[in-house]
Amino acid sequence: MKRHLVLLASLCGALTLSAPSAFASEDPHWVETGTAYTDTLGGGQGLASRANGSLLYRGLADIPLDLRLKGWNHVGDPDIARGYTFDAYQGADTATSKMFAVTTPAGKRYEYVHQLNPGEKVNNSFATVSPDGQWLVSGEWGDQNRLQVFPAPLLNPSTPPKGGALKEAWQITLDKPVRNIQSCDFVTDTRLVCASDDPSGELFPESRPLLQVDLPHKLDGQPVTGSVKSLFGLPQRSLCTDGTFEAEGLDYDVNSGILRAEVIPPGVCALATTVYSYRQVTD
């Protein structure tokens, strides 16, 4: 079945429906280097690179039954830090909490539940850990001027060692509003890249832009303001035209320097998610 989905995806990705997928006016800049496919149910929500270069994919089919029974019906874009896997879970629209599940290198899973603050949205779109392993960054849906920051469960000594409550530590205030952030990942201590599923072109010139967030210094437990700019519009290429594309997870592999971004195509082509690869180059 998976082989058939990949073949279908290759056909569905044959037609270009958008402008060229990468450009920049400054050095270095990202250039597209490859395309791969994964089945959407098993990998369309996000991906993360392991230390050995292999990829972990997450999709709605990956939610364990015991977590579904607890009401966690959506998993977001994951991250892997120091061998620990961080998953972002959310429940129904009426839920009053969100959850981060952390799986140790030995395979033991611990659950960290965050009670929503006043005005906080229920969405838990992604989890990404700072390069020093101390801070977990996540985000909400819709129009936002912030990213949320938590102490990284297990890796930050201030967190309970076997799961429990997780309070927000502080926030990254954004100097420009963003919309429908599906995922972010650290490229350096002071730079994140984020995938926006905003098709409108209202906040940034591109449809479904890949955004860059620059911080004045590495995260240190204090509030900080991030500078946001759009790098390029994520590709929207498919033979299918009935429906809409959806930008999903992304990952930066610090060992290989490869940035990967997922886009779900419309219509029947949505059975397979396209994974675009990029590298930074200097002119």
Distance between the termini: 42 Å
Read across the widest sheet, the strand sequence of neighbours is 9-10-11-13-17-16-15-14
Helical residue percent?
Answer: under 10%
Question: What are the secondary-structure elements, in order, as H or E?
Answer: HEHEEHEEEEEEEEEEEEEEEEE
Mean pLDDT: 92
Percent of residues in β-strands: 35-45%
CATH level-3 fold name? Neuraminidase
CATH architecture: 6 Propeller
- Classified by CATH, the class is Mainly Beta
Question: From the alpha-carbon coordinates, what is the Rg to the nearest angstrom?
Answer: 18 Å
Number of domains: 1
Low-confidence parts = 1-8, 14-25
> How many strands appear in the DSSP assignment?
20
Largest β-sheet summary: 8 strands, mixed
The general outline is globular
Q: How does the helix and strand content classify structurally?
A: mainly beta
Q: How many DSSP helices?
A: 3
